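We modelled each protein-ligand pair independently. The example shown here corresponds to the zinc ion entry; the chain sequence is given first, followed by the ligand as SMILES.
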Amino acid sequence: MVTVYYGEALAAYGFGEGHPFGPDRLDAFWNAAKQSGLDRKLEVAPPVIANREELEYFHTQTYIEKLIRLSAKGSGTLDCGDTPAYPGIYESASVVAGCVLDGARRIMSGKTDRVFVPIAGLHHARRDTAAGFCAINDIGILIEGLRKEHGIKRIAYVDIDAHHGDGVFYEYEDDPDIYIADIHEDGNYLYPGTGFSSETGTGKAKGRKLNLPLTPPNVQDRDFYKAWNRIEAFLTKVRPEFFILQAGADSIFGDPITHMGLTPDAHSHATRQLCRLADEHCQGRLLVTGGGGYNRDNIAKTWCAVLEALID
Ligand SMILES: [Zn+2]
């Protein structure tokens, strides 16, 4: 069984009509899923809202207080300028977090096999600040939730969004139980300017992170597959107890804010291979987040390709 979260409360996380991260992203995907009949092959789950304690699994109390304050005020910025507050951003960000936590509970209790949470995968926020359109970091909240609620120790996080998942990477850079593999556009060309191949983890976690930057122009599927083979070799040795994939659609050709040239086949391949690895190592436990993606057509095609791979 595949479970997908869908509902107005989840779509509400966004920065207004006309913004690259606008509230129309969810329906861009869902309308395409319905058109191709994918919605009939899966379970649709309603959005779930996380409480403050759950947000503080990962975030500092001081930061959550700031988020609540600026959300009520409805203006101001949550970081150096990329991530503005809007009325209700605290609540809509809490829904993103609530869906991934609920998804993990469904997987861990055996109610479903795979979960897809569109809009989630806000991988830039740090414990104490927002960053790059990410008011919270639902991946960090999920990692801490898996540890706290389910006693999971070894977790593999795979990120194929065009941007380096710096919020996850640097918060777990020295954590030996969190294995990270991240394919992204070279930081010399794109925000956040990090994720170089020399960054492999620190202290006890040395060698447990894999950064694979691809250099534009003309990054194509064949470059992705080459990098992907290294990720598979890395993950096979790890034997994690839970897999998380951030399947950002902004690494597809034609995204307005990045410069990569992949097709949805890359994301489909990554999802299929992670399903296989999850079946081999951890009873199939895999939660996928939609991540970035600012070309609406690409969001539709890519997230549908991911869904199809999960259903197969
Ligand atoms: Zn991105």
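The chain has one domain: 2-311.
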